[in-house]
Design a protein that fits this description.
The protein is an alpha/beta fold. It contains 13 helices and 11 strands. A 5-stranded parallel sheet has the order 1-7-6-2-3. Strands 9-8-10-11 form a 4-stranded parallel sheet, with helices on both faces. A two-stranded antiparallel sheet has the order 4-5.
Length: 289
């Protein structure tokens, strides 16, 4: 993985060779599976892996926001994770929710966090060991940094990006981008209106991975985002529906390609598609008023 900008990916063999360390009560290494729910985790998971429910463990349900600094510290301390732990994250849907969690760890300044390339599906389909045993680790203390706002975009930042012609990357499906549908089939519709943010390009999150869910090479990613990178000297804004798929694109751009000006608009279409007077565009073209 040395051809990437940052050392942030590990492969399944790397994890398997260190399962004893991940199962140890020593907080030096922690393996975490992140899914939208924990039913799959409850059935089987990598030995030693902690199970995080993206919706209930990593979201403030009252504010529809990421965890506060204090809640993030408590979550980690309760699961035996310290700020010095090497945390390896993986999950379903080619790491949708694991990438979001990675972004949240970076937001609170955790240095040593990585993704398991290919996620849960790769681990299972290639017959790596699994268990249904839930590990129990001694409680730690965890001290998070103040939020790193350089990797996050808010509504007002998107307004500014539209006015300044900053590249916006909509990573949803073409049908969501055009406004034909409001959410992927079977998932909750979280917005009143369909379409996309004016000027946004549609580059699906799935374009950054191969068929087995592992990330494409840095050269392939640079080619995929060539036009965006050429225009994104000041900033690139990625968004989706609820912020998880855009985290995959943020990870590819910010961590693998090295476009460290990339930000994740985690409010995404759930926020923008419900705003009064916010401009939207329907159809397959990125322009519009």
């Amino acid at each position: 993985m040395s051809d990437y900008a940052n050392d942030v990916l590990v492969d399944a063999d790397w994890v398997e060779e260190r399962l004893d360390e991940f199962r140890s009560d020593d907080p030096a290494h922690r393996l975490v599976e992140v899914d939208v729910d924990t039913e799959a985790y409850d059935a089987e998971h990598a030995p030693g892996a902690i199970g995080f429910n993206w919706e209930t463990d990593l979201q403030d349900q009252t504010r529809r926001d990421i965890l506060s600094k204090e809640d993030f510290e408590a979550l980690n301390a309760d699961h035996g994770i310290s700020e010095d732990s090497t945390v390896v994250l993986y999950g379903d849907n080619s790491n949708w929710f694991a990438a979001y969690t990675y972004w949240q760890y970076k937001y609170y300044g955790h240095d040593d966090v990585k993704l398991l390339d290919g996620g849960r599906e790769y681990w299972l389909e290639n017959d790596y060991s699994t268990t249904d045993e839930v590990p129990e680790f001694s409680e730690t203390t965890y001290a998070a940094d103040e939020p790193d706002e350089s990797i996050r975009a808010y509504r007002e930042d998107v307004d500014d990006a539209i006015d300044a012609g900053v590249p916006l990357v909509d990573v949803r499906s073409p049908e969501e981008y055009s406004g034909e549908i409001l959410a992927p089939p079977g998932l909750q519709e979280t917005a009143q209106r369909g379409g996309h943010i004016p000027g946004a390009r549609n580059i699906s999150w799935a374009s950054v991975t191969d068929d087995d869910g592992t990330f494409k090479t840095s050269d392939e990613l640079e080619e995929l985002y060539d036009d965006v990178l050429a225009e994104g000297d000041d900033e690139i804004v990625a968004y989706c529906r609820i912020g998880e798929r855009s985290s995959v694109a943020w990870f590819a751009l910010h961590e693998l390609v090295g476009a460290d000006q990339t930000v994740n608009y985690d409010g995404s279409w759930t926020e923008w598609g419900n705003l009064v007077r916010a401009p939207i565009v329907t159809g397959s073209e990125p322009g519009g008023e």
